[in-house]
Specification:
This protein is mostly helical. The protein is about 80% helix and about 0% strand. It is built from seven helices and no strands.
Length: about 150
């Protein structure tokens, strides 16, 4: 069993003992999604696979939060904020701008990328290094701007 999955399981047990309803609900959602993917793919997930699942769940919650706030539904927005907070506990620390720039520089050096047509190869090298630690949409935009600039 992956360490991350075990950690989520332990946090679920702790939340049950503490009778923390909101936290327990968020942890159960995480466990259910991990279990669903395991059943669908018929494989035991690694920490990287679980991080991808948590990253996807985080994006979904952030999108929902924006929609609820725009609609003035503070009650539903509060639930999303709580779930985001719990999911983030299990995510690696996000990269700072300087760290992200250093990763992009290292990937450019490793691939020799110099034009936008090299973006695919560059992203293939960069993705495993920053997945779950940076928004891939923003990473892609920064790489695209870098390659377009020369």
């Amino acid at each position: 069993m992956s360490a991350l999955k075990e950690s989520i399981g332990e946090a679920t047990k702790d939340a049950m003992r503490a009778r923390a309803k909101e936290r327990l609900a968020a942890l159960r959602l995480m466990n259910a999604e991990i279990k669903r993917v395991e059943v669908d793919t018929r494989k035991i997930l690694s920490d990287d696979d679980i991080l991808q699942i948590l990253n996807r769940m985080l994006k979904q919650r952030q999108d929902s939060l924006q929609q609820y706030e725009a609609a003035g539904r503070e009650d539903l927005a509060a639930v999303e904020r709580q779930e985001i907070e719990v999911i983030r506990e299990f995510m690696p620390a996000p990269l700072s701008d300087a760290e992200l720039e250093a990763e992009i520089n290292a990937a450019v050096t490793a691939t020799g990328a110099s034009s936008p047509k090299d973006m695919g190869a560059l992203m293939n090298v960069l993705r495993p290094r920053v997945q779950g630690r940076a928004d891939m949409g923003q990473v892609s935009a920064r790489v695209k701007a870098r390659l377009a600039g020369g």
